Amino acid sequence: METDNNNNNNDTTTQQQTDQEEVAFIDPNEGGEELIIDNKEEMMDDDDDGEDVGIEGEQEGEGEGDESMEEDFEDESVQGFFEHTDSVYCVAINSVHPDVIVTGGGDDVAYLWDRSTGEKVHKLEGHTDSIAAVKFNGDGSLVATGGMDGYVKIWDVATGKLTQNLEGPSEAIEWMQWHPRGNIILAGAADFCTFMWVTLKGDLAATFAGHSGPVTCGNFTPDGKRVVTGSDDGSIRVWNPKDSTCMGVIQGHGFHENLITSLAIRNDNYLVITGGEDHFACISNINTGKCVGRLTGHSDSVQIVAFSNLNNFAFTGSSDGTVRVWDIATFQTRSILRHKEGSDITKIVPHPTQPILYTSSTDRTICVWDERNGQLIKQFKGHQDSILDFDITPDGSIVATASDDKVSLIFSLQQPQQ
User: Fold this and answer.
1) Is residue 27 part of a domain?
2) 6 and 348 in contact (C-beta within 8 Å)?
3) Could you tell me the pTM of the whole model?
4) Is residue 319 a contact partner of residue 71, using CB atoms and an 8 Å limit?
5) CA distances, 380 to each of 63, 161, 364 (Å)
6) How many CA atoms lie within 13 A of 343 on its CB side?
7) Enclosing H/E stretch for 68
8) Structurally, how many domains does the chain consist of?
9) What is the pLDDT of residue 33?
10) Which residue range forms the structural domain that includes residue 368?
11) Is residue 166 part of a domain?
């Protein structure tokens, strides 16, 4: 439902935007860097399963989350937040003030709380349906909440006061993203449209209309000059945020055959990976409007995708309980990372500065992997139901979770040795 750039926690320093400043959007004629892919014009297929380096034997049993887990229940968390009265759907860590956490849930409220003490700081009330997404802006002063009631609300982090109630969507918010360099927010909705607001004024700056199904995922490119959205209609669209025009559509033969669940945009601003219910992922060049590679091998829906911040790798997480690491140059599987068989992978977050990958699953665990060889570094347990979302601090040492068990937990790890 919610999708981010290369990682879901881009901690790029945000320049505070005044009312008069204009966010730098793209010149439609601007080109991209050379694509590091063999054969740009012809689509390639990968049927190589790669090296299976999943959790095996004793380690595999640790993450299964079956009935025996109740008897052998372990809680490795160092802190928790227990105020929610329904499932916790989303969580975010303030990248500037990492002791500040926000969570949103099925109880229609969000909370700002202290990571060190687990105590509530502010209760954010006003939504009339479940909160599906929460995001801090770049300087950590504002937090946005997106609800299934169709509203995006902006709150002052220091006071907990509502600063803007952003209107436009007629149906549920599917995802939200802040502009990487300004107080502009983007949200996709179930009403087939994507909306962009200037949050300092509360003005609706643009509506991107053209999909024929709910807009399930999307984001700004990392330079902030284009918007990319994916939909139930099986297409991705590239938009000019200055005038809301559609700059290109990728769909049809060789692309996805069913709804698109997730997308990520690489830091080069033009390479996009999409996951679909058709069991595969596609890599596309949005400058040329071509799908340049199709990643096959999963046996169920690809629910979440990401790019490495350091290596020429892509990651796909599936309802088949596995995460695959792909070599983008060859479209081959490098390794397969296994959670419990039959579980859904719910999120993938690459470390911003190290070759480390974090994954969550409905098997109730967070796993930390070496993305280069697929080896398991650490597995965190503590939840009694599915983990739906998580976030990491900028240094990767802290993980905050959101779960169906109505709880958010904090896990801590020493920086992995490279």
Assistant:
1) no
2) no
3) 0.85
4) no
5) 9, 34, 9
6) 28
7) helix 68-71
8) 1
9) 32
10) 44-412
11) yes
